TrEMBL record:
<dbReference type="GO" id="GO:0022625">
    <property type="term" value="C:cytosolic large ribosomal subunit"/>
</dbReference>
<protein>
    <recommendedName>
        <fullName>Large ribosomal subunit protein uL29</fullName>
    </recommendedName>
</protein>
<dbReference type="InterPro" id="IPR001854">
    <property type="entry name" value="Ribosomal_uL29"/>
</dbReference>
<comment type="similarity">
    <text>Belongs to the universal ribosomal protein uL29 family.</text>
</comment>
<dbReference type="InterPro" id="IPR050063">
    <property type="entry name" value="Ribosomal_protein_uL29"/>
</dbReference>
<dbReference type="InterPro" id="IPR018254">
    <property type="entry name" value="Ribosomal_uL29_CS"/>
</dbReference>
<dbReference type="GO" id="GO:0003735">
    <property type="term" value="F:structural constituent of ribosome"/>
</dbReference>
<keyword id="KW-0689">Ribosomal protein</keyword>
<dbReference type="GO" id="GO:0006412">
    <property type="term" value="P:translation"/>
</dbReference>
<dbReference type="InterPro" id="IPR036049">
    <property type="entry name" value="Ribosomal_uL29_sf"/>
</dbReference>
<keyword id="KW-0687">Ribonucleoprotein</keyword>
<dbReference type="Pfam" id="PF00831">
    <property type="entry name" value="Ribosomal_L29"/>
</dbReference>
Length: 70
């Protein structure tokens, strides 16, 4: 998932995506703790996707706040 794809989504869609990514991260951590995780790079990718979604949400919130100010 790249940032350009995220910019086209609404804040509600982004929050839903964030929730699903957090669930996925939890499941990956659980699988790693039980030594069932084959590809540990998945954890890194999910963590970075969470950061991307949070960044875009914050950018959209800041833009909305700026438009209401002016």
């Amino acid at each position: 998932m790249d940032a350009t794809e995220l910019h086209s989504k609404t804040p509600d869609e982004l929050r839903d995506r964030l929730a699903s990514l957090k669930k996925e991260a939890f499941n990956l951590r659980f699988r790693q703790a039980t030594n069932q995780l084959d590809n540990t790079a998945q954890m890194r990718n999910v963590r970075r996707d969470v950061a991307r979604v949070k960044t875009v949400l914050n950018q959209k919130a800041a833009a909305a706040a700026k438009t209401t100010e002016a």
